[in-house]
């Protein structure tokens, strides 16, 4: 997220880009990268020696949550409350977007870029697939179905299995392009148009294909559900269970387009760091305009595509460099191992956006009390002040960020290892993981370098 997204909301520059510049924080980038690669390699060696059979089975893992909590979360009243909450926030954001002023102090920008895009990740990691519970598109589709007497799960057509998550990958790319590349991403008109198009596509898709469309094609629901697989909660046979996040992660369905989704999520976060690195800023400024052509904008577009495609290629090559069981397709391996990138994505989101979400998220809540900039205080938060505690503790913040990245990669290695010994022929249980290990090491070193360089 560019540091100029919401100018005027913050008293000064904040470490919004992950770990920040190497000269600004008390951790040596060389030490962090070396330690991360060492931790990854040691984890692989330990797993290879001590972990010879699959351990995570979501069909049997998990223990019942407290009865009262399970009854509450699985009740119809809870579902209705979540849908009402989603509609209220959606309506309030629309109110600010349609009637608010085209100023960067309009809380709609913070609600869209901070509460939705970043907050959705943190809440999903703790609580599970939040967007599925509060999605206004699902709620509106449900209301239309009830009025017409139809089933919201059934549309006019069956959702094509071959399409999988590709529409979600395209939607996620459209969002990150708007946020990171489009030069007018902080003007109300374009952002409002993007949101209107999103709502229109979601409602049309729900009418045509039912709820299967949201599960497969809604970019925010697919994102939230993937991150929610790292939460300690799952619902099975109508009961809330406490489950190992790794067992939960093992339930990710390897649909078509899954590699595209994780590639966009990881690649765009890496690009967000890269675009703020000194060499790239100098290059873009030097080549901003040649004649009437904005080559800086062209370069940003090409770089974003390169980062996303690069992640997909590295993951695909790393996962396919192995033998396969009879009847198994080597081309299907990337989507089988794509779930192991989800912990890495979460780690980089924490490293990249933690302080940004904590501080600008608070400021958005303050601004949301006066959505039309009339001096109102609808929410009673207008006189609150932002708590900059995290920014005032840079050593703690740097340690949290490095730990998040390293932990994300280690969990990814564990998930890939468990999948490999479940999927690959016995003689390839070890050698078949070497390609993925190299890919993980590349992601670790490259990602940390970019986060420090931002």
Automatic annotation (TrEMBL):
Which UniProt keywords are given for this protein, alphabetically ordered? Answer: Membrane, Transmembrane, Transmembrane helix
**Spans traversing the lipid bilayer:** 31-51, 72-100, 112-131, 166-185, 191-210, 252-271, 302-325, 337-358, 396-414, 434-452
- The domain of life for this entry's organism is Bacteria
Q: Does the keyword Membrane apply?
A: yes
Q: Which named protein is this?
A: Fenitrothion hydrolase
Q: What is the lineage of its organism?
A: Bacteria, Bacillati, Actinomycetota, Actinomycetes, Propionibacteriales
């Amino acid at each position: 997220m560019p540091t100029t997204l919401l100018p005027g909301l913050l008293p000064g520059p904040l470490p919004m880009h992950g770990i920040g510049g190497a000269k600004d924080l008390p951790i040596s980038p060389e030490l962090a990268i070396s330690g991360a690669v060492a931790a990854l390699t040691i984890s692989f060696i330990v797993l290879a020696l001590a972990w010879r059979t699959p351990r995570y089975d979501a069909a049997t893992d998990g223990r019942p949550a407290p009865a009262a909590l399970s009854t509450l979360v699985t009740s119809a009243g809870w579902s209705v409350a979540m849908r009402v909450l989603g509609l209220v926030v959606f309506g309030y954001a629309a109110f600010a977007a349609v009637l608010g002023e085209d100023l960067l102090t309009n809380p709609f920008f913070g609600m869209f870029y901070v509460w939705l895009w970043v907050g959705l990740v943190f809440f999903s990691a703790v609580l599970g697939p939040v967007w599925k519970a509060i999605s206004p598109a699902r709620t509106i589709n449900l209301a239309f179905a009830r009025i017409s007497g139809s089933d919201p799960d059934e549309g006019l057509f069956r959702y094509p299995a071959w399409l999988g998550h590709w529409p979600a990958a395209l939607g996620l790319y459209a969002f990150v392009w708007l946020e990171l590349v489009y030069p007018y991403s902080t003007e109300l008109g374009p952002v409002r148009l993007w949101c209107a198009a999103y709502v229109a596509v979601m409602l049309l898709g729900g009418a045509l294909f039912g709820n299967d469309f949201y599960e497969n094609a809604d970019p925010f629901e697919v994102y939230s559900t993937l991150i929610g697989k790292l939460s300690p909660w799952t619902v099975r046979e109508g009961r809330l269970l406490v489950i190992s996040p790794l067992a939960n992660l093992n339930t990710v369905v390897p649909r078509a387009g899954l590699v595209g989704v994780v590639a966009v999520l990881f690649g765009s976060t890496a690009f967000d760091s890269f675009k703020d690195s000194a060499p790239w800023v100098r290059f873009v400024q030097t080549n901003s305009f040649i004649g009437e052509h904005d080559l800086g904008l062209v370069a940003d577009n090409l770089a974003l595509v390169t980062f996303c495609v690069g992640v997909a290629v590295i993951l695909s090559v790393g996962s396919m460099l192995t033998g396969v069981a009879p009847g198994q397709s080597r081309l299907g391996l990337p989507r089988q191992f794509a779930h192991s990138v989800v912990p890495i994505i979460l780690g980089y989101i924490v490293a990249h956006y933690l302080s940004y979400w904590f501080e600008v998220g608070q400021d958005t809540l303050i601004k949301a009390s006066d959505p039309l900039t009339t001096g109102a205080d609808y929410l009673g938060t207008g006189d609150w002040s932002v708590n900059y505690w995290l920014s005032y503790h840079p050593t703690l913040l740097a340690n949290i960020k490095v730990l998040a990245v390293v932990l994300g990669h280690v969990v990814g290695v564990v998930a890939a290892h468990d999948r490999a010994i479940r999927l690959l022929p016995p003689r390839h249980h070890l050698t078949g993981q070497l390609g993925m290990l190299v890919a993980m090491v590349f992601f670790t070193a490259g990602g940390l370098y970019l986060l420090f360089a931002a």
